[in-house]
Amino acid sequence: MRQYSPDLTPPWKKPKPVPEVPAEPGLVVEEPGTGFCGAVIRCEAGTVTLEDRFGKHRVFPLEPRGFLLEGRVVTLVRPPSGPVRATRTASGSVAVPRARARVARAGRIYVEGRHDAELVEKVWGDDLRIEGVVVEYLEGVDDLPAIVADFAPGPDARLGVLVDHLVPGSKESRIAESVTSEHALVVGHPYVDVWEAVKPSSVGIREWPRVPHGQDWKTGVCRALGWRVTNTGEAWQRILGSVRSYKDLEPELLGRVEELIDFVTDSGGA
User: Where is the DUF3097 domain (predicted)?
Assistant: First the structure.
C-alpha cells in the first residue's frame, strides 16, 4: 500500500495561488526574469511570443507564475480558442482589445492644419488614445515661437510639433530653429502639403503633379488631376479615404510622427 507523507509546509510559506490569464492578442505583460515587456502577438502550444514597442520579438515558455500583468504575478494560459495572432492598428502597432483611453497627458502634439490632424488621427488614433496624447492643429506656423512660449512646455508637459515643408533654407526651417526649449521638439516632412505624404499609388495616380511657384498648391493639384477645383476639401476627403494604414504613407512622415509620439510619451513626459 502506497504511503503518503503529510504536507508539513506552514501555510504562510506556501506560494499563494495566482490568477490564470488567457494570452489574448494585445495583452501587455512583463517577463520578470529578463524584464522584457511586450504585447502578446502569438500563443502556441507551450509558448507565447511578445513584441515590445520597438518591434522586437521574444518567445517565452508558458510557465506557472511566469509573468507580471500590471505589476501582479499571473500564469498565462493558452486561450481556449487555440493558437492566436494579434491584429494590428492602422499604424502597425499591436492592437489592444477593449483598451481604455488613457487620461489625456499635459503634453500635446501640434500639427499645422486640419488635414494633418485628420491624417494623424486616422493612422495613429488608436495608439494616441491608449497613450493619452492629444493632437491639436494650428493655422500655419508663423507664430510658432509665441505659441510654444504660451504653452510653456516642461518635464511633465512636453510639446511636439509637426511642420510641413521643413527643408533647409525654408521659412519653416528658420521658424523651427527659433524654438529652443529642451521640452519641445519640432520636426517635419519635406512635402509642401500633407497631401503629398500619401503615396500616389494609394490615391490611384502615378505621381503628385508639380505646381508652379506662386500658384495655390492644392488648387493646382486638383486642376492637374482633373478633379473639381471649387472645393479642395472634397478632394482631401478623396485622398483621406484612400488611406487604410501606415503602408499608404511615405516614410518621411511616418518616422516624424513616431518620433513625436515617443518624445511626448517619454519618461520625461506626463
Answer: 20-79, 108-265
Average pLDDT over residues 106-114: 90
For the segment 9-36, what is each residue's pLDDT rounded down to a tens digit?
555 555 667 899 999 888 888 899 888 8
Domain boundaries 19-74, corresponding CATH code: 2.30.30
Which one, of 21, 66, 202, 175, lies nearest residue 112 by Cα?
Answer: 175
Amino acid present at 14: K
Instruction: Tell me the backbone φ, ψ of residue 84, rounded to 5 degrees.
Output: -130, 150
d(CA 159, CA 143): 15
Fold classification of 108-194+245-265 is Rossmann fold (3.40.50)
CB neighbour list of residue 171: distance below 8 Å, 6 or more residues apart: none
Domain boundaries for CATH 3.40.50 within the chain: 108-194+245-265
Q: Which DSSP state fits 162?
A: E
Tell me which residue has cell 490568477. Answer: 19
Q: Is residue 84 scored above 60 in pLDDT? A: no
**Residue range(s) in the chain whose domain bears CATH number 2.30.30:** 19-74
Cross-strand bridge partners of residue 85: 42
Task: For residue 207, give the amino acid letter.
Answer: E
Amino acid at 202: S
Which of 51-65, 75-89, 91-105 shows the lowest mean pLDDT across its residues?
91-105
Contact present, 137 and 113 (Cβ < 8 Å):
yes
127 vs 137: CA distance, rounded Å: 18
